[in-house]
Structures are given as C-alpha cells and as structure tokens.
Amino acid sequence: MGYAGSGNAGKTVYEGLLKLEYRGYDSAGIAVLSGGKTELIKSAGRVEKLGVPAQKLGGTVGIGHTRWATHGKPNDVNAHPHRAGSVTVVHNGEIENYAELKAALIAKGEKFLSETDSEVIPRLINNFYEGDLLAAVVKCARMLKGSYALLAIRDGKEEIVAAKFRSPVILGPGDGCNYIASDEPALAGKCRSVCVLEDGDFAKITKDGFEVYDENLNPVRRGLTANEAREQSLVLCGYPHYMIKELWEAPAAVKNTLTAFGEVSGKVRAALDGAKKIIFTGCGTAYHAAMLGKRYFAEIPQISAEAEYAGELRYSPVYPCGKTVLIAVTQSGETADTVEAARLYRDAGATVIAVTNCPHSAISRIAHVVVPVCAGPEICVAATKSYSAQIAALLSMAASLVDGAHIPVDAGFAPELISETLENMDIYALAEMCARSRGVYFMGRGIDYAVALEGSLKLKEVSYIPGGGYPSGELKHGTLALIDGSTLSVFIITDEALAAKSMDAVEQTLSRGGMVAVITTLPQVQAQFSRRAEVIKLPECQKYIAPLSAAAALQLLAYRVAVILGKDPDKPRNLAKSVTVE
Ligand code: F6R
User: Fold this and answer.
1) I need a labelling partner for 360 at 20 to 30 A (CA). Which of 25, 86, 444, 524 fits?
2) pLDDT digits (tens, 9 = 90+) for 287-321
3) Cα-to-centroid distance, 387 and ligand 1 (Å)
4) Of 402-406, 464-468, 557-561, where does mean pLDDT reach its minimum?
C-alpha cells in the first residue's frame, strides 16, 4: 500500500493495510517520508499492532506491507519495509535468483539484516542510484527473476516508485493525493476508479499525479476502470466474523453470477464450440469447483473433460488433441499456479476461459473469455461465497452448451436453495462431534466426492483438525484403517443413482465403531441412518444443484467448529488469501 498526498501518510497507509490484511497477516510495517527523512515501524503479528505508532508517524508520503512469509520466519527483522542506505522498499512476490544476487552484494561488502529474498531489492536500488530513483528501480528490475510488485521511496524526495511483474499493482487517483496498492479493497471509499498496471510497467507516484513507464522509461498510457470494491464489503455489518457474513452472502453471489452469465453465454458457447477436450484447473477450493465443472461437462457427449491442480498442470506436458479448452477457476485471478497454467495453455494454442471474481486480475488478461463470478470482495481467507458462485458459473456453462438436454437443471432455484439450507439447518450437534474428533473424513461419490473434498479443506483450514476427503468407494481400500471411536466420517449423499453404494460405505464405517454423520438430500438415506448416525437433512433438489446446498452446510459446519474451538475463522494460521507465489 502506498500514499502520496498532504494528509497523514502513516495513518492512511495503516488504514489501507487493514483492508489488505487478508492477503497476509504474519507481520507488517510502514515507512513514511517526513521532512525529507524516512521513518519506519515494523513488527511481527497483525497490522493492528501498528495502529498507534502509525498515527504518530505522520509524513505525507508512505508505503506499507502486510506479509505472508515465503523466505524467513515471520519476525520483526524479516517484516517489510526493508532499507538499504537511503532506499526503503516493500515487496510482494518471490525473487527466485535472490541467493545469487545476495552473494554478489555480500562480496561487494553489503551487510544483510534479514533472511528475506526481498532485501536484495533495496540494496540493488541503492547501489544503482545516481540521482533518479525510477532509473535505479528499472536497473534493479532487470536483475530480478521471479515475481514482484514493489514500492520504493528514498530520503529527500516526496515520491514513490513502483514496479510490477507477475504480482498485481493498481494505482488510484484520490482527492489531492494518489494511492497505490496490491488490490482494489485497499482503495475502497478512496478512489472511484483505478489504473491496473501490466507486467513490465513502472510508475512514479506523487501528490500531484502518477505516470506509468516501460523499462526504457517511455511513458505508457493505461486507462482507468471503475473500482468495484465497496466499503460495505469490508466491514462486518454486525456479524462476528467475515466467514459467516460471507456465507450468508452466497445466495446473492449465486444470483448475480447466474444473471451475469447471460451476458457472456454467447461468447462461452463460441469458445467451447467444437471442443474435443476440456481441462478444468484451479488451486484449493477453486480446484474443487473445477472438479465439479468436470463432472458437469462429463455429462455432455463427445467431450472429454478432465480436472487437474494448476500447480501440477503447469509442469505437465501439453498435448492439445483437437480443439482444447482450458477452464481456469480462480477467485482472485492472481494465483500464480493458475495464471501460469493458463498462460502455458494459451501459448500452446488452446482456448482459455477464466472463471473469476476479479475482472481486473492477471487471469482476465490471459483468457480469451472471462466468465464473471459476482461474489464481491471476499475477506475471509477461507473461500465460501466465491466457491458457491463458481459452481453456479460452471453449471450455467455446461447447461448452456447443451440447451438443457443433458443437464436438466433449474439453476434459478439455487439462491433460494442456499438460503433454505442455511436457515433450516441444525448443525450444532455435528459441530460438537467434529470438535471432539481426532480426525474427520469426508466421503462422497461422483459429484458428492468433489464436495467432500471441499468440506474437508474448509474444516482443516479453520479448525486445524486433521482429516481428508475420499471417494466413498475408496474407503475399503485403505482409509478404513483410520476408523475407530475417536474419528468421525461425514458422508455426503445427494446423487440418487449412487446412493446405494455410498450407503454401503456408511454401513462399513458403522461396523468398525466409527462415529458417522450423513449429509443428504434423500429421504431414504435419512430413514436408514437417522437412529445410528448424526443425519443432516438438506432440502430435496436436483443433483446438479445439490452441491450448492451441501457446500453451504459444510461451510457452516466448519465455521461452527472454529468458533467452538476458539479459532479465528477469518485468518487461519499460516495462510493468506491470494497466493501470488509458487
Ligand atoms: C481455501 C481457499 C484456497 C483458494 C486457493 C486458490 O478456502 O480459499 O484454497 O481457493 O488458494 O485461490 P484463488 O481462487 O484465488 O485462485
């Protein structure tokens, strides 16, 4: 986050960092230019720790950073900003050749203070400085391999210089001031429009304006787009946590996504026309949505649908066979593995469709077609409403392709289904069971397996209870060994055609003395297990939209368990929302 104006820079940068904290929260720091000199504060822990000292910093130009550690422990020294001579820098991303740069700088007599890769940046800039900070930053950038969104200031001149490569940077004009940040929410309520920098861009920001340059220092024109982030999304509005607030926002997110799909359906059909192979990809929760996408498209004859983790896909050989379409699912649109997988496939001649919540993100600039996910800013690190909206987008895509012939789905009912699930579900007893369990395993078949994986990830993320997600049929091939009276198995059963098979797996688990819960839309499943297991009955619905109901139940379950165990569901340990590094 950076600010150049005439107000209190320390306070303004601090407020921006609070809004960006979901991107990393293990340490934070702020540097301001005050009377030509740089004042710096930094500390391990949450941004809040800087509140009082930041107010006192003052200054009229400032930069700040909230960190998710990649190199070096989260402690005071490794926190950004990093300083060398008169130069101070904050950096997002990862410098892959930092070890060799560091060795060369040490050989020249530099003394490093931190264990970070980032510290090479201020040291290089300081070495290259010959009276022009922008020129020194450009020279430094030429030496760097990896990804960077960096801001640099230097004693004596009221300006910020920025550089961007494979990590997001946006600029925003304010009222008598200018801002720079890594994401739009930081500028919510401050800038109505933003300028999104492209890879290879440099920028100079002062109180009076900002200019963008290429690496030869030629000015570059970048237009302004509306800043979609609203302050309303960044406050709790009476909810105790963002996770529960955002869970309740899922019906609106799904509704808006279904509506927005109407505007791109023609382009999507054209992009998918004649496709022989469709590969779905993403990371974490987005990958679990991608798995559902694969299941939906697998219903369509003559299309081969696959799903693969983006981190695996980007390092696998690319074999386009006939027309290949890559569908990349990503809330942030900035996840490094997903962006690079999309770039790889586009460069290999495949058509790329991005399903994303962030229209200004890197993936949107790579994809041939963008399918909007209209979930609004998601602040809780654990994805909830964005996952539901991704499912709605993928379902709309599959259904539109076959005009409902193979996927007879009434997606319009989905928002109501989620509301009904959340309103009527009594999940407390199951949450208590989870909280007491040594391990929690989620099982399902077909579509329910993809949902089981997400249920498991959500619970692990916010409660730290170990466990996993498995296909119900795989249980007897090994996982059954884990089952005893201290483990809980949660079965998701919504597909009538596969219900009997999953019910066998429930029986096998009960026979081994394991605790069992069943989450189902089917009355016959409820009847069979209501006396022997904890049964959560979901509203009856078509199997294709059942994942939306089951996901709401599992998200609420994870939230309740986190609360019972006293964990912060919004900021799970060790995690960050947008993973722009490998
Ligand atoms: C889990 C979660 C992560 C993200 C993953 C991909 O709750 O949020 O697993 O889904 O890091 O992020 P995006 O969707 O931004 O690409």
Assistant:
1) 25
2) 999 999 999 998 888 889 999 999 999 999 887 67
3) 9
4) 402-406
Tell how far the Cα of 279 is from the centroid of ligand 1, in angstroms. 18
Task: Walk me through the domains of the chain, giving residue ranges and CATH numbers.
Answer: 2-234 (3.60.20.10), 237-408 (3.40.50.10490), 413-571 (3.40.50.10490)
Three-state SS for 489-514 is EEEEECCHHHHHHHHHHHHHHHHCCC
Spatial separation of the C-alpha atoms in residues 144 and 203, rounded to whole Å: 17
For residue range 66-94, what is the model confidence (pLDDT) as tens digits?
A: 999 989 999 999 999 999 999 999 999 99
User: Residue 335 C-alpha to ligand 1 middle, in angstroms?
Assistant: 8
Query: What is the token pair recorded at 468?
Result: 């996993």
Q: What is the pTM of this model?
A: 0.93
Ligand 1 centre to CA of 94 (Å) is: 19
437-457 mean pLDDT: 97
For the four alpha carbons of 178, 184, 189 and 192, in that order, the dihedral sign comes to positive
| Residue in 407, 390, 396, 376 with CA at minimum distance from that of residue 450 | 390
Rounded to an integer, the average pLDDT of 231-247 is 91
- The phi, psi pair for 509, rounded to 5°, reads -75, -45
- Minimum-distance ligand 1 atom for the alpha carbon of 382: 7
Short-list 447, 496, 490, CA closest to 469: 490
Distance 495 CA to ligand 1 centre (A): 26
Quick one: angle between helices 428-436 and 546-564, nearest 10?
60
Residue 186: half-sphere exposure toward Cβ, Cα within 13 Å: 30
- Ligand 1: atom nearest CA of 386 is 14
Q: How confident is the model at residue 407 (pLDDT cuts 50, 70, 90)?
A: low
pLDDT score, position 282: 98
3-state secondary structure of 418: helix
Cα 386 to ligand 1 centre (Å): 9
Which residues form the pocket of ligand 1, taking CB atoms under 6 Å from any ligand atom? 283-286, 330-332, 335, 338, 382-383, 457, 461, 578-579
What is the SS3 assignment for 373-413? CCCCCCCCCCCCHHHHHHHHHHHHHHHHHCCCCCCCCCHHH
Helical H segments across 108-233, by residue range? 120-128, 133-143
Reading the block at residue 350, the tokens are: 């495949």
- Residue type, position 120, single letter: V
Contact between residue 244 and residue 299 where contact means Cβ atoms under 8 Å apart: no
Where do we find the tokens 């004649």?
A: 274
Q: Which atom of ligand 1 is nearest to the CA of 390?
A: 14
Q: If you average pLDDT over residues 3-31, what whole number do you get?
A: 95
State how far the Cα of 486 lies from the Cα of 505, in Å rounded to an integer: 18
Q: Virtual CA dihedral for 482, 488, 493, 499, nearest 10 degrees?
A: 50
Mean pLDDT for the chain? 95
Q: How far apart are the first and last CA of the chain?
A: 22
The residue whose C-alpha atom lies closest to atom 3 belonging to ligand 1 is 284
